[in-house]
Amino acid sequence: MLPQHAGLVKPDGEEESSKQCHQENRSRLFTECTDYSDSSSAKESNMAQQHSQGVTGLRNLGNTCYMNAILQCLCSITPLVEYFLSGKYITALQKDSGEAATAFAYLMTDMWLGDSDCVSPEVFRTAIGKIYPTFLKRTQQDAQEFLIYVLNELHEALKKYRRKKPHEKVTTKCYRKVASSESSIITRLFEGQLNYDIVCLKCENCTYKNEVFTVLSLPIPSECECSLQECLGCFFQQDTLTWNNQIHCAFCESKQDAAVRASIAKAPKTVIFHLKRFDCQGRMKRKLRTDIHYPLNNLDLSPYIYPLFRKHPKYSLCGVVNHFGDLDGGHYTAFCKNTVSQTWYSFDDTRVCEIPDSSVQTAAAYLLFYSCQPFSIPTPKCKC
Fold first, then answer.
1. Which of 57, 60, 54, 103 is nearest to 82 (CA)?
2. I need a labelling partner for 121 at 20 to 30 A (CA). Which of 58, 136, 165, 355 fits?
């Protein structure tokens, strides 16, 4: 099932060797950054070599910067990387559905343990393209949609069954369809649960609905600038359902206006925010260029988490997917925090450079990856 804004294909771009890293002008890339390949040599010390782990560029295979940006952010989530580098995924692989997961493991190994400044994601692209042929085309795609498809395929390949719980209905298209009896490294890291309180405005009868999610698509309340907390406040504010959106009240036995408020019943260890920059109103399509201010550390989600489940309310940013350009043409890049050096890097296909913390904030941010787990260094137990 396609995500909520399926059909709004976001622009991509061929690899641009002349593109500079983003600094003062947020539509450009940093000029003073140097290629990662210029800073490495065969005679580096052990510590310098250690700092190169997870800092590997990805070749653009023709309009695949959307894929490269997502892969770099997934590569910055160390529990996920550890799972694949340790070989644990092998025992979880489902029969006849592990090609993409195996290719993903090989790619993570090359990016963390390889000795190249850049690698090609072609094997993984081919494997995921067999399942979703759209990604084999050299056409522009949406990074958020690609992320959902990748997480869904990794889950399908690695899922195990646990004791069944009451069925939880999933209706929103941007949420991954998953039975409550299925568990995988993807559900353990990325899956959360929303709780909706629905109150009939006529009889005040209250009902509840649960919904699982892997990505939260946040509305942008301003066209100039706002904070991530304002986007969250807009998402979790109480809404009134009227007219065609009325609910059927079991107590009134008819359709009635209702008040609905969402809260987080289960917060994921890694929460992914999709900033809804691509707006569609009828036939009118536009990109919102709002400068959204988001914290690098101590993002507090406790105001939106149901009180009984506030175990990990504080999150730290570990990855950002940026989109530069318009609906008809543009380019994706990524900012990722390296778990070894604890520094930020800009990834623009094969071009990699270190950036200061102050430059992670950008008006081009499209996807934000936050983790409530402390950073750790992936330690492989066996090589793929």
1. 54
2. 355
Strand 160-161 relative to strand 270-275: parallel, antiparallel, unpaired?
A: unpaired
Is the Cβ–Cβ distance between 338 and 317 less than 8 Å?
no
The number of CA neighbours under 13 Å toward the Cβ of 290 is: 24
pTM strictly above 0.70: yes
Q: Which helix (H) or strand (E) holds 326?
A: strand 314-326
Helix (H) or strand (E) holding 91: helix 88-92
Q: Which of 5, 21, 51, 65 is catalytic?
A: 65
Between helices 122-131 and 143-158, what is the axis angle to 10°?
A: 80
Is 65 labeled as catalytic in the residue annotation?
yes
The three-point CA angle 188-323-375 to 5° equals 35
CA 361, CA 228: separation in Å to the nearest integer? 12
CA proximity to 66, closest of 153, 18, 116, 128: 128
| Alpha-carbon span 47 to 12, nearest angstrom | 36
SS3 category, 240: strand
Q: Rounded mean pLDDT of the chain?
A: 82
231 among known catalytic residues? no
Query: In this structure, how many other beta carbons lie within 10 angstroms of the beta carbon of residue 126?
Result: 15
Model confidence pLDDT, tens digit, residues 45-79: 333 444 468 899 999 999 999 999 999 999 999 99
Of the listed 155, 331, 336, 384, which one is catalytic?
A: 331
156 vs 145: CA distance, rounded Å:
17
